[in-house]
Amino acid sequence: GLRSIPSLSEFHRLRYLWINNNKIQDLTFLIKNYCLTELYLDNNELTDISGALKHLCSLQILFLHNNELKKLGKTVKELKGMISLQTLNLFQNPLAYDPDYRLYVIYFLPSVQLLDRKVVTQRERESALHLYNPKMAWVMQSIAFGKRVDTDTSLGTMVGSSRGTQPARRPIMPSVLKWFGSVQVMDLLCSFCRVPFEDPEGAVLVRATTRSLMEFSSVDWNKVATCQERRLKNKAEEPPEKLTVQFR
């Protein structure tokens, strides 16, 4: 039945906190608890969490279900800095009745693996990308099929596909990514947690993913039997050991 809690700033190393099943409406008492990794705030009377949780960068589990949170965009914005957040519950809040609620949360909080007790699937991540950033989705699809796209042109316009056409600018992804499968490209970009071109952090993401990737592989051919040795069975078969090193 608690309606308020005094400041917990003296507990600098507090990591786990259960204050669920109360009547709490204000979270300012958490302003100094930077080390929290698990926070259970479900079944309270929270209507707004703005400015109360953004500093919890180490948080991995956050339960906010069964409250009175109404503004989806405002709530998600407060959680965007939680790069370690993996488990999130927001169901039984008014904001959860938005038709695109789940895809919105998945797109803007890509570190979340378990949302409202359901595992976030790769298909959901792809759908979220197509819904909220169709331009990036088109670029990624084009890369997967070995095409070259100019992001400044309208969707569907291929740069350099016709004679005499020159690319207006360097594509945001290197040509080396043509060799990756479409699913691997999706995994690569969706796992980095940011939306390109919308904020400085997105620009950093794009720069990081455009670095060249070099791969060196070596095999000890002395351990690989020749065709004649295989026929005569003079040498026992050993599985070849392949050493691969990647540099980005």
Which structural class is indicated by helix and strand composition? alpha/beta
Class of one domain in CATH? Alpha Beta
Q: Mind telling me the C-alpha Rg?
A: 25 Å
H/E topology pattern: EEEHEHEEHHHHEHE
Comma- or semicolon-separated keywords:
single chain, about 250 residues, alpha/beta, Leucine-rich repeat, LRR (right-handed beta-alpha superhelix), two-stranded antiparallel ribbon, about 25% helix, LRC72 protein, LRC72, Leu-rich_rpt
Describe this structure in words.
InterPro entries: Leu-rich_rpt, LRC72, LRR_dom_sf. This is LRC72 protein. There is one protein chain. Strand 4, helix 2 and strand 5 form a beta-alpha-beta unit. The protein contains 7 helices and 8 strands, in the order E-E-E-H-E-H-E-E-H-H-H-H-E-H-E. With 248 residues, the chain is of the alpha/beta class. It is elongated and about 85 Å long. The chain is 25% helix and 11% strand.
